[in-house]
Amino acid sequence: MCPPVDGTPANGSNGHANANGENGAPGNHPGYSAIQSSHNPHPHHKSPYQPVGDFLSNVSRFKIIESTLREGEQFANAYFDLDAKIKIAKALDEFGVDYIELTSPAASEQSRRDCEAICKLGLKAKILTHVRCHLEDAKIAVETGVDGLDVVIGTSSYLREHSHGKDMTYIKNTALEVIEFVKSKGKEIRFSSEDSFRSDLVDLLSIYSAVDKIGVNRVGIADTVGCASPRQVYDLVRTLRGVVSCDIETHFHNDTGCAIANAYCALEAGATHIDTSVLGIGERNGITPLGGLMARMLVADRDYVLSKYNLKKLKEVEELVADYVEVNVPFNNYITGFCAFTHKAGIHAKAILNNPSTYEIINPADFGLTRYVHFASRLTGWNAIKSRADQLGLNMTDAQYKDCTAKVKALADVRKITLDDTDAIIRAYHHNLHNEKEVPLLEGLTAEEKKKYIAAEQELSSEKEKRQLEETADVQAEVPANKKTKTVTVS
Ligand SMILES: [Zn+2]
């Protein structure tokens, strides 16, 4: 079993094989610099074939609008009282998000009071609130002390017919009225359509162009139903980039699993702001998760992400929110899932122990986490067992590590073994090397398991003998090592 990745430095007791020296923090391996791309052409290594930077892309200068306290409030399990909202807002601020978006103060009296209280915290992040494109809602919002308003209205034919029932002329006129009002109060204003990918392109571009002309700060594209693919996102954002001069905010739901990829493509196409929530919580199965976006962006531009965001806070922020909404962090979560930095296959373990960037594109130390080399399985290799024995303070020769590993693998073939079992085997093996009286490698095997193990061991020793014979024969025949053909052992 893999223990959780818990941010504590590797040591002999928690099963974390420390693959890299000092507390899981290796130096800068080439594998941990951002991948080279047209967005990040690595200008330090100039060559005549250097790609030209992509000037449309904002992959290296994006901003985060963190919407756990707005979109996240729409998550099925979410109920945030003021105390919870303040704790989450402070944690997000320490993480370094650019904006924190709050539920509309027009939603309820308590929502309005919460909004005012969070504005008074004096956070570094700008505070936004998300309101319908109604003058009345905007009037309530500007009085709460927020830095800006995110206004939204449905523009797709589905929403125009079945939700608010307004036509495009009405939508445009209301938008212009609300934007002029919010600007007159000295607040930032974003205008967004809802369900943008099922809206008519001509309608969208014409309304965005109109609001851009009167000085809106951002326009927003929202994949409200999670239907868009990365390529559709790229096309729409790129087209919009050619029409408006203001910033472009994007909001992606994850119904079809594209929320992170869509956010990334939006930035490539010239979007400037990405909406996220912690663990992706939101309406239905949510939106682009903050942690997943960080993983993606760290690989795209490590320097930018590290200079701006306090990644070591990620696990804490996620656990805080997970507690409030009573969910577990998924096992396969980006960065913080319990096996996100677990290496199991023997060949992976060996390479990881030599140089972690062989099988890791993200350095767990960037997030204050440690990797874990899984050694309690039949897939283990002797490098992993050696590393574990080192942690347990048991020294052996390489031949002994290999022999011990063969026994671990043989036992793992007989039954599923745990970390503790593996430690016990290593200890017993080491004990038997130095003591007259042998102890069993693993206590508590059933009669059936013992029988299977004895058979497995016999198989092992006959293989070993065969190998030794071969080696002796090689030496005697003086066959160059690279020319000899090994006997294939039938097991
Ligand atoms: Zn949403």
TrEMBL record:
<feature type="region of interest" description="Disordered">
    <location>
        <begin position="1"/>
        <end position="51"/>
    </location>
</feature>
<feature type="region of interest" description="Disordered">
    <location>
        <begin position="458"/>
        <end position="491"/>
    </location>
</feature>
<dbReference type="InterPro" id="IPR050073">
    <property type="entry name" value="2-IPM_HCS-like"/>
</dbReference>
<feature type="compositionally biased region" description="Basic and acidic residues">
    <location>
        <begin position="461"/>
        <end position="470"/>
    </location>
</feature>
<feature type="compositionally biased region" description="Low complexity">
    <location>
        <begin position="9"/>
        <end position="31"/>
    </location>
</feature>
<dbReference type="GO" id="GO:0005739">
    <property type="term" value="C:mitochondrion"/>
</dbReference>
<keyword id="KW-0457">Lysine biosynthesis</keyword>
<dbReference type="InterPro" id="IPR002034">
    <property type="entry name" value="AIPM/Hcit_synth_CS"/>
</dbReference>
<comment type="pathway">
    <text>Amino-acid biosynthesis; L-lysine biosynthesis via AAA pathway; L-alpha-aminoadipate from 2-oxoglutarate: step 1/5.</text>
</comment>
<keyword id="KW-0464">Manganese</keyword>
<dbReference type="GO" id="GO:0019878">
    <property type="term" value="P:lysine biosynthetic process via aminoadipic acid"/>
</dbReference>
<dbReference type="InterPro" id="IPR048253">
    <property type="entry name" value="DRE_TIM_HCS_fun_bact"/>
</dbReference>
<keyword id="KW-0808">Transferase</keyword>
<dbReference type="InterPro" id="IPR054691">
    <property type="entry name" value="LeuA/HCS_post-cat"/>
</dbReference>
<dbReference type="Pfam" id="PF22617">
    <property type="entry name" value="HCS_D2"/>
</dbReference>
<keyword id="KW-0460">Magnesium</keyword>
<keyword id="KW-0028">Amino-acid biosynthesis</keyword>
<dbReference type="InterPro" id="IPR000891">
    <property type="entry name" value="PYR_CT"/>
</dbReference>
<dbReference type="GO" id="GO:0004410">
    <property type="term" value="F:homocitrate synthase activity"/>
</dbReference>
<dbReference type="GO" id="GO:0046872">
    <property type="term" value="F:metal ion binding"/>
</dbReference>
<feature type="domain" description="Pyruvate carboxyltransferase">
    <location>
        <begin position="62"/>
        <end position="315"/>
    </location>
</feature>
<dbReference type="InterPro" id="IPR013785">
    <property type="entry name" value="Aldolase_TIM"/>
</dbReference>
<keyword id="KW-0479">Metal-binding</keyword>
<dbReference type="Pfam" id="PF00682">
    <property type="entry name" value="HMGL-like"/>
</dbReference>
<dbReference type="InterPro" id="IPR011872">
    <property type="entry name" value="Homocitrate_synth"/>
</dbReference>
<protein>
    <recommendedName>
        <fullName>homocitrate synthase</fullName>
        <ecNumber>2.3.3.14</ecNumber>
    </recommendedName>
</protein>
<comment type="similarity">
    <text>Belongs to the alpha-IPM synthase/homocitrate synthase family. Homocitrate synthase LYS20/LYS21 subfamily.</text>
</comment>
